[in-house]
Amino acid sequence: MTTATATTAGAREHARAQAGTPCDTMPILPATDFPDVPAGIDPATLVWAERVAGGNYTHKVLARGTLLQLTDLTGDACAHVLLYNALEPVERLNVADTQKVQWQVYTDTGQLLLSDQGRVLASVEAATAGRHDSIFGTSTRARNEERYGDGAPHGPSPAGRELFKLAGLKHGLEARDLPPNVSFFQGVRIDADGHPHWEGSAGPGAGITLRIEMPAIVLIANTAHPLDPRPAYHCGPLEVLARRDRPTTDTDPLWSRSPEGRRAYANTLDYLTARGLA
Question: What is the pLDDT, as a whole number, of residue 1?
Answer without folding.
Answer: 47
